[in-house]
Amino acid sequence: MPRTKRLNEEMTRFLEDSGYADPGEVVVLTDGALDLAGVANDLPYDSEWILDWAHIGRMLRRVDQAITPLAYGRLTDSGSAFELWDVFVRFRHYVWTGDSVAWQQFAAKLAHLLDLREKRDPAASSQIKKASYSLSNVITYLKSNVESLIDYRTWQRVGWPISTGFVESSINRIVGRRMCKSQHMRWSRVGAHSVVQLRVALLNQEFHELARRQFPWIGQRRVTWPWQRTSQGF
To answer: Between these two residues, 30 and 106, which has the higher pLDDT value?
Structure first.
């Protein structure tokens, strides 16, 4: 949506309804795109931007998958028999703990080891280039968003959110299949908004309370909702 005054007002109302009050602090989990930065900066809240671990994790997983077939072999005199893998694990650890100096050092070591492996094993050149490309992507991504990196381990231990993965899966479950997953029928924007409110209330088992507020007569009758009598989520 365009950055309009109306969008700012709607976001402010949403935060107020969610229990935030001015002055307040809001943590924004982002995949690195700052599309909402212009809106958030105009809100009456101090905001902190955190790089979403779900996106970091997916990129690290691709590096992991590319390096695994190349893991066996000592490439330097002081290295172990699984030197590539050892350095990658340490690189991933320092990203997880938010130590930007250390992960950049190990990223450089990992890139150097991949170069050595390609020189010693030209037959595996295509696999090594794939690993180097995946590594380059994640390094560029992390460096571009280095100010939004945190100590994810500590945040997770104290119960703070580090990822929007659960939000994205909920959005996909609630509305994505109907609006953008090649279904035969689509909802209108107004209809989608109404259905989303209904399905969220059902999934949270809050629909009875919501219905009683909207329709007082429900409190005087026995009503069984779909989520109470089906084995699968509605």
So the answer is: 106
